[in-house]
């Protein structure tokens, strides 16, 4: 589900202004809730094929739902997908999970068992059904309050891979949340932070409260309905009807909406445009509990994402700024301290709409305050007098290019042919097809804003040709006009 072009000149983008987002009742559903409407497009073609597909899975092998826009699904197909959806649901409802948890906690330690294969707390009457599985024979009360240590993280990068914060990262977020004066945290896809908050609250060492919104239903067996909602952050869908949505509303509206911060750690492969759209939906829920005079404010947010996605996040949420803090993960070998980690540190950063001078980064780790930028910056990030800001982003000290009139990565050189700084050994004009509009070639706007996009005259002149023939045409005639429309074989 990328909106970048493939080598064949084909790409896919999501249609967020369509009915697929605004009117969920008219949108087909898959096991992950309402689907999203996408458009497959070809370089040089004004319009392409629209289709519905899963909001959460990028791999069609994980969720194969596909329906052309305007096509009516047959009754047999509807029944088949209804069966698939029912088969993919959790074995119990959240209410049933809560009842099971109470029974489990009442058991003596010797009878508390956990099936690692099924990720399920077992009651004595269920032991026989799991004889062939790997079963943990003892579950302590401390393990019940820290389920991320019991559950095996999911590792499919194309669906919902789970990377858990390191202890150092959790401590940083807790200290910042408390210093900023928040009393509760909406954790969207951040189970490690949520369980730490709930564990400290249960022990009486902190009054901070939290609510976890996550697509992983396995957490439902460890938390009450007031502290967990089965939720898909890519389509703003609450599973199990209105009950979890109401629980989220009550949490957001507590204390008239004051004192709450949202911390979200979405899958890095997710479409930023979709995440921004759904985040705004959460903002709307929060604003419903505020006076009319505050209707334009945003919920204070800390969004964890790679630094190289900064421009996309800022395009969708202009009030957001990137912080230099490097977020580390316990179960990711590259995004943590250690011999296999990246030599410039983790590329994961924090984006926030909180004033940057209020977020204090740890000075013992080399962060310092830049009085000119009014924010804390990393050791290698030096203030450029010409740019009038601290420009480094990837863990290196950037250098200023007078020809480009901006700071660039230190290994880059200015290319006279490309008229910009590029990596050493790059191929000139290699990236030219990624710049500007894919339809008319104008660098001043993108494809979705092109005035020729829905031109009947231009569209009537296009013909479908095979991918192989099209690539041959591109190779034999590099100076030819816009490439005509072709049929794409896969959605990435």
UniProtKB/TrEMBL annotation:
Q: Where is the composition biased (Basic and acidic residues)?
A: 451-460
Biased composition range(s): Polar residues: 474-492
**Which positions fall inside the CCHC-type domain?**
437-452
Principal cellular location given in the protein's record: cytoplasm
Q: Name one GO molecular function term.
A: rRNA (adenine-N6-)-methyltransferase activity
The superkingdom listed in its UniProt entry is Eukaryota
Q: What is one Pfam family matched by this protein?
A: zf-CCHC
Quick one: where's region Disordered? 451-492
Source gene? Answer: ZCCHC4
Question: Which SMART domains does the record cross-reference, listed alphabetically?
Answer: ZnF_C2HC
- The name this protein goes by in its record: ZCCHC4 protein
Entry keyword set: Cytoplasm, Metal-binding, Methyltransferase, Transferase, Zinc, Zinc-finger
Signal peptide (UniProt feature, chain positions): none
**Where does it live in the cell?**
Cytoplasm
Supply the source organism's classification: Eukaryota, Metazoa, Chordata, Cephalochordata, Leptocardii
InterPro entries from the UniProt entry: Mlase_EEF1AKMT1/ZCCHC4 (IPR041370), ZCCHC4 (IPR039846), Znf_CCHC (IPR001878)
Its GO CC terms are:
cytoplasm; nucleolus
